[in-house]
């Protein structure tokens, strides 16, 4: 009975204000920021790249964590920004006239694995 009343009210509102109504299932939840570790070799490459403001802000706000001789950048950003940064570091795989450096290629793969693991369905 309550479901029928709710549907009736929703239909009445939709008839009166069609531009201000939306089905709950049509509304997407905003992406929540996630913290991922980016290898230092990837961070170093991206610091010299031409980035969008959101990408640059996420990179600049990351915390450096020392790891032996290198470091990791612990970054918090929405998954879309992590994906964009990953796309920007594709040259580390070689190609586009650049030689592939094994350590950089491995670092990019590690970051890709972290981004993909987060995006994988639970």
Describe the structure.
This protein is of the alpha+beta class and 122 residues long. 48% of the residues lie in helices and 16% in strands. The chain is built from five helices and three strands; from the N terminus they run αβααββαα. The protein has a three-stranded antiparallel sheet. The mean pLDDT is 81.
In summary, what is this structure?
This protein has helices spanning 2-16, 40-47, 53-60, 79-88, 102-119, and strands at residues 34-39, 63-67, 70-77.
Key attributes of the depicted protein:
122 residues, alpha+beta, elongated, three-stranded antiparallel beta sheet, single chain
The secondary structure category is: alpha+beta
Rg to the nearest angstrom?
A: 22 Å
Task: Let me know the number of strands.
Answer: 3
Ranges where pLDDT stays below 50 over 5 or more residues in a row are: none
Question: Could you say which overall geometry the principal axes of the C-alpha atoms support?
Answer: elongated
Percentage of residues in DSSP E strands: 15-25%
SSE topology sketch:
Layout: H1 2-16, E1 34-39, H2 40-47, H3 53-60, E2 63-67, E3 70-77, H4 79-88, H5 102-119
Antiparallel strand pairs: 1-3, 2-3
């Amino acid at each position: 009975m309550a479901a029928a009343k709710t549907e009736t009210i929703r239909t009445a509102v939709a008839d009166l204000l069609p531009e201000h109504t939306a089905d709950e299932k049509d509304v997407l939840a905003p992406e929540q920021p996630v913290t991922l570790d980016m290898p230092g070799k990837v961070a170093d490459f991206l610091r010299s790249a031409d980035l969008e403001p959101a990408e640059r802000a996420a990179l600049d706000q990351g915390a450096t964590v020392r790891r032996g001789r290198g470091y990791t950048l612990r970054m918090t950003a929405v998954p879309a920004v992590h994906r964009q940064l990953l796309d920007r570091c594709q040259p580390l795989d070689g190609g586009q006239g650049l030689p592939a450096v094994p350590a950089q290629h491995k670092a990019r793969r590690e970051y890709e694995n972290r981004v993909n693991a987060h995006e994988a369905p639970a």
